[in-house]
Structure formats: C-alpha cells, structure tokens
Design brief:
Blueprint (H helix, E strand, L loop, with lengths): L1 H32 L5 H10 L1 H33 L5 H92 L6 H26 L7 E3 L1 H13 L7 E6 L7 E3 L1 H18 L4 E10 L2 E7 L28 H11 L3 E6 L5 E8 L7
Helix pairs in contact: 1-2, 1-3, 3-4, 4-5, 6-7, 7-8
Length: 368
C-alpha cells in the first residue's frame, strides 16, 4: 500500500514541475508574440510569472519557489534586452521585478514549509493520542476484568459465609435428633431445620437473581396503578407494627417504559426495608413526581438512618445490617434500576430515617 502512494506523489510532483516550466516559458513566449504597443497585455504577462512561482513554492517549499523564481527571471530577461524597444526606465523597473519574483517564491515557500511542519506535527500528535487512547482502552478493559474477578471473589466469599451459618444450625439440630430421636426437643429441632433450609433457599434465589438478572421486558405503563399495587402489598408487611404508610403521588404522572414486574420488585423491597427499619411509631412515605424526561420516586422512612461508614456499602452484595437479611435485596434492586437506565441512591434524612431515590427515564430513548 505504501509504494503506490509514493509513486502517486512522485507522478504528481512531476506533473507540477512540468506545468510550472510550461507556464513560465509560455508567458515568456506571449511577451514576444504580442506587439509592444499592447502595454496592458505585457503588464498582465509580467504578473503571470507569479502563478507558477507560487504553485512551485506551495508544492516544493522555499527551494522550489526560489528555483521557479529564477526560471521566471531568466525567461523574462530576453524580453527586456532582446526586444530593443524597451525604454531604459521601463527596463530598470522590469529588472527590479526579478528580485520580487525571488522574494515571493521564498516567502510563499517558507510559509508553505511551516504549514507542512505544523501539519506533520499535528498528524504525529494525533497518532500519539490515538495510541494513548488505545492503551487507555486496553487498560480500562483490564481494570474491568480485574473488577469483575474481584467482585466474583467477594460474592463467593460472602455466599460461603452466609451458607455456613445455616448449615451449622442444620447440622447441630440433626445431631440432637440423632441422639434424642424421641426427645421433646424434636419439634424445636425440626423447626430449626425448616427455618434454615428456607433461609438457604431464599439466599440462593437472591444470589441467582443477582448473578443472572433477566433482561427487562419493557412496555409502556401508567405508573400510578403500579405504585398503588406496591402500597397494597407493603401494607401486609406492617403486621402489628405501629407504622403508617403514606402516599405522596400527583394525580398526573407521565406513562413510563419499564418492566412493571421488576419495578414493583424494587419498590416493594424498598418499602419493606423502610417498614422494618422504622422502630416504634413512624411513617413510611412513597413519593413520586415527574422531572423532565425522567420520573423521580422516593421511599422515606423514620428509622435509624444510614451510618456514614455504611453509606458507600449499602448496595454491595451481602452487606446487611439485619440479622436475618441476605444482603442481596438492594444489590438486585441496583442492578434492575441500572438495566432501566436509571439511578438509585440512598442518604440519611436530616432529622430521622433514610431516603432511597430512584430516577428512571420515561422513555427508552432517554436511556443513559
């Protein structure tokens, strides 16, 4: 590929040299062919020498411009001295034009060389930047792979830790049953086995939902009925707690493209967490409002809030402050919201409790 390009440049340079020489000599011949009485034409021909000089300077730099200027001057001399009809004053003026040819060739060539150097520097800088960008991309991919491996290690360690405790309880209860099969502790041991087996099942279900989240099934829905459904479902989680569920939702909310099942799962998880975090009397609020091309949904509680040292770990897998929690609910919620092109954040309230905020795009074209 390089050799044809070199040959093409050489051919072009040869054509330009031929054109410069031909134009210069043709101008000189025109001087001799036109009668001296046509002074305007001779003035025009005299200035026509600058055209091949400029072309040569632009193509070959100051040296090419100077050579073309010398050729133009040499071609112009016969008209000055051989015609015999040029007045001495006019001849002196025309002789002074030859240094101007050289000056025009030099200046144009110098400027052309400078522009070529700048273009080469720019091209070299662009090549270097492209190389650095590719290197950054490669490093970024390595970092992402390392991050995935680190996350996998963290998940594996967390899963092993979470499984170990229920297995120990099951093993202990089974050992008691073996030693005292007809003892009155039998029902208690069976209850422990069932409870821990259920805990393991929930843990593995949450882990699989986190490790292999299904892609959202987008469709356009009215958000209001979905929020009402979430409130009704969360009401069953209150049980006998002195907690009040409150809704702060305007009558008009824009339709939203989402997976209603997944969004219901996320909001229900947040509401149940908010109810469980509210100790004693308190209020849990589900609020929503439109914000341009997005919808903002908030779940506020009046619990103990989020400790500053835990704020960055709230959405980490297997992080939980609840005794029976798996630590995967908020991680799954975070993944679902990200798949919808949204953002989920958590912060403590100034007075009491915490607020979880979802910002979801109304339409899929607004993703990102």
């Amino acid at each position: 590929m390089a050799q044809p390009a070199v040959d093409s440049r050489r051919n072009l340079s040869g054509l330009i040299v031929t054109g410069v020489v031909t134009a210069t000599l043709s101008t000189s011949l025109l001087h001799h062919a036109i009668p001296l009485t046509q002074a305007r034409w001779h003035d025009l021909f005299q200035h026509m020498y600058y055209l091949p000089i400029v072309v040569a300077a632009l193509r070959f730099g100051w040296l090419g411009g100077l050579c073309a200027a010398v050729l133009a001057g040499a071609s112009h001399l016969p008209y000055i001295y051989l015609s015999g009809n040029v007045a001495p004053e006019a001849a002196a003026g025309q002789l002074m034009e030859i240094p101007l040819f050289c000056l025009a060739g030099l200046l144009t060539g110098i400027l052309s060389d400078r522009e070529r150097r700048q273009r080469r520097d720019l091209q070299r800088t662009t090549t270097q930047l492209a190389s650095v960008y590719r290197e950054l991309q490669d490093n970024f991919e390595h970092m992402k792979r390392a991050e995935r491996m680190y996350a996998l290690g963290q998940l594996s360690a967390g899963l092993a830790h979470e499984i170990r405790n229920p297995l120990a309880s099951i093993a202990g209860a089974t050992a008691i049953l073996e030693r005292h099969p007809a003892d009155r502790t039998r029902d208690e041991c069976v209850g422990i086995v069932k409870k821990e087996a259920d805990r393991l099942n929930r843990l593995l279900t949450s882990f699989l939902a986190f490790a292999r989240p299904r892609p959202p099934r987008f469709r356009t829905i009215e958000l209001g009925p979905t929020l009402d459904t979430v409130m009704d479902l969360a009401g069953h989680a209150i049980d006998r707690r002195p907690v009040t569920l409150r809704k702060d939702i305007p009558a008009e909310l824009p339709p939203i493209e989402c997976d209603p099942e997944q969004i219901t799962q996320v909001l229900l998880n947040l509401l149940i967490n908010a109810v469980q975090a509210t100790e004693g009397e308190g209020e849990v609020t589900l609020a929503a409002r439109a914000e341009g091309p997005r919808v903002l949904i908030q779940v506020r509680d009046q619990g103990s809030g989020i400790a500053p040292e835990n704020r960055e770990k709230v959405f980490d897998p297997f992080f939980t402050t609840k005794e029976q929690g798996t630590g995967l609910g908020l991680s799954v919620a975070h993944q679902i919201v990200e798949q919808h092109g949204g953002v989920i954040t958590a912060e403590s309230n100034p007075d009491r409790g915490a607020t979880f905020t979802l910002l979801l795009p109304v339409k899929r074209e607004n993703l990102g």
